[in-house]
Structures are given as C-alpha cells and as structure tokens.
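FAQ

Q: What does a record look like?
A: Structure on top, sequence underneath. For example:
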C-alpha cells in the first residue's frame, strides 16, 4: 500500500465517506459545504498509460451475474442480469429455458419458469449505485444525473423494477456516498455534489466500488447495478500510479457474479492514462458506452443520452418451485447458461 491507508470519515446506514491519504495527509469533505477543501491531489502523480491490469483477468464474449433468494413459499427466485456482448454492446434477448441449468445443494433442479422483466409479468428489486467521478472536468456528469434521475427511475418503474438508488463519489480519493435509498434522499445527496480537484490522472473507481459494496446497505436478493461515470482511466494497486488499494482482479473476485456494470466514459479521443475503465465490463460484463465530452457539456441527461435505464428490462427471473428443491438446503446456487458455443456459469449466495 506504499504507506497509503483508507481513513473512514463518515459511516452510517444512509451514507459513507472515505479519503485516501499518504503519511499524515488527509482531508474531510462535506458535499453541502460550498467552501469544501481541495484534496491533496499529488499523492498519485503518475499519468502513465494506457495500462493493462496488473493481475490478469478472464475476458469472454459474455458474463453472467445476478441474485438469488428464498421465496416465502420455500422455493427459489433467481434474477439473471442482462447478458451483454462485451465486443459490440448488444444484449441477448433470446434466452431459452432449455439453455439454463441450475445446481442446488449438489443436485440439478428443475426450473419451473423463465420470465423476462420487460414483459411486465414479474417485478424485481434493483439496488442501483452511481459511482461518480467528481473531479473538476466532470461537472457536466453531475448536472446530467441531477437532470435525469427522475426520468431514469420512471423508466425502471415502467419495466416493473422496484428501484432504490445510491451513489459514491471519487477522485484520487473516495469522497462521500449514500446507500441505495428513495429517489428523494438520493436527489438531496446529488444536489450537494460539486466537481473539483483532479489535477493528476487517473482516478480511483476501484476503491469506490469496494467501499460501496462493503459499506452500503443492499436489500437481500436485490439485483445490484454499479453505474460508473468518468472521463479517465483507473488507478490500480501495484502499478506506478499507486493510489488504489485494489486491483481489477480484486473487484472481480468481490463483485463478479453479483453485480451488473454500466460504464460511461466521456472522451475527447486519444489514449487515456491509467487502466481503461472498459476493463470493468470486459472482466465482469455489462454495458460500456463512450460519449464525446464536448457534446456532453452542451447537453447530457442519463435518461436520454444512454441506454442504462432500459438495459435492466433485459433481466430474467428464474422460478424454482418448493417441491423441486424439497429436502435440499444450501447457501449457494450455481446457474449455467449454454447458448450453444460454451458454458457460462455464476455462483450466487441465496439470501
């Protein structure tokens, strides 16, 4: 860690804030304070890149992720997150029941129903976390989240998704956050954000993801959606940038089968320093989108300019009846999807 530690500043059911410090350097930050201090931005001075992940991660055309819970009647409900092709961003909307195998307590079990959320026949819970780069060049993204959050959630309601929304902000450091909650509280938090700092690049979304994952309150069995918005590459532990305490491989191990990722990269073209943020979706699946930052500064609205809200409509729910798992009991379930070319498998805790 090269002497750097993560210092908790605020931890609670409604919020979390951390700062990245080196030696005696540390900063506190109140998003409602218009005179908020500038963080020490010289602790991660390297702009080298683009860099490959320091620890190799597996990439594939598709990745599975989702959630699983016991139903009130003793059966199982498994949410299969949207399956996105990492090469072209297309979403598989032709999942068939005969392509799915479920292994529970060492036994292959019958899946009684496969329903697509878009059909409106089934409702799912989704806890959505915005992972926001709030360095100086990202003021337009904050305005976009402010402008679009109501429309964003309206689309989720239309899709039959019971959504709670939270967020965490980062630069080189991890700044403030709010656990997934109602949209009113989330809007209040976003309304207090400001963009500042970031004299060096890259920034530190990996530690922000870890902090949200381990510090936020998620609903049992809820789909988890991590929406990363930035305009630069990532710091990673072990390379010369040095600020992050995590490698990409650490985040894959921590969240891999449980989270669906959306990554919005604003770019002016050319190569970005650090580890490219597209590695998040390459390694764990999800939707990666690039936008031209010049256009975004003029007009940007997450509910209009991206497909992230509609993406959740491509989720599927697998229902396993109580009689199909009678006599079986385990705290994990394995789900395998075989579209004909190869097997894709995820292991989920049963909540």
């Amino acid at each position: 860690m090269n002497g750097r530690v993560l210092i908790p500043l605020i931890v609670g059911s409604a919020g979390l804030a951390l700062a990245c410090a080196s030696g005696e350097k540390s900063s506190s930050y109140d998003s409602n304070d218009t005179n908020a201090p500038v963080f020490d931005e010289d602790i991660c001075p390297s702009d080298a890149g683009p860099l490959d992940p320091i620890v190799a991660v597996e990439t594939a055309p598709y990745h599975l992720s989702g959630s699983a819970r016991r139903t009130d009647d003793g059966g199982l409900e498994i949410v299969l997150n949207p399956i996105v092709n990492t090469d072209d961003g297309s979403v598989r909307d032709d999942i068939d029941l005969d392509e799915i195998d479920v292994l529970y307590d060492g036994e292959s079990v019958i899946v009684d129903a496969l329903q697509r959320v878009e059909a409106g026949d089934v409702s799912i819970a989704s806890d959505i976390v915005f992972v926001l780069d709030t360095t100086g060049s990202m003021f337009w993204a904050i305005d976009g989240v402010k402008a679009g959050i109501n429309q964003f959630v309206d689309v989720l309601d239309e899709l039959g998704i019971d959504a709670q929304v939270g967020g965490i902000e980062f630069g080189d450091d991890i700044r403030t956050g709010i656990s997934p909650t109602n949209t009113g509280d989330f809007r209040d938090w976003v309304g207090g954000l400001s963009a500042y700092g970031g004299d060096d690049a890259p920034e530190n979304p990996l530690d922000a993801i870890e902090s949200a994952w381990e510090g936020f309150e998620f609903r049992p069995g809820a789909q988890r959606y991590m929406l990363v918005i930035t305009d630069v590459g990532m710091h990673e532990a072990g390379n010369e940038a040095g600020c992050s305490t995590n490698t990409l491989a650490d985040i894959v191990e921590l969240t891999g089968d449980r989270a669906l990722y959306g990554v919005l990269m604003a770019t002016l073209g050319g190569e970005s320093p650090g580890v490219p943020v597209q590695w998040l979706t390459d390694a764990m699946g999800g939707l990666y989108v690039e936008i031209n930052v010049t256009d975004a500064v003029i007009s940007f609205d997450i509910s209009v300019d991206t497909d992230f809200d509609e993406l959740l409509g491509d989720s599927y729910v697998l229902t396993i009846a109580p009689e199909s798992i009678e006599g079986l009991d385990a705290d994990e379930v394995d789900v395998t999807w075989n579209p004909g070319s190869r097997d894709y498998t995820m292991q989920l805790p049963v909540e």
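Q: Is there anything notable about this one?
A: Residues 1-42 have pLDDT under 50 and may be disordered.
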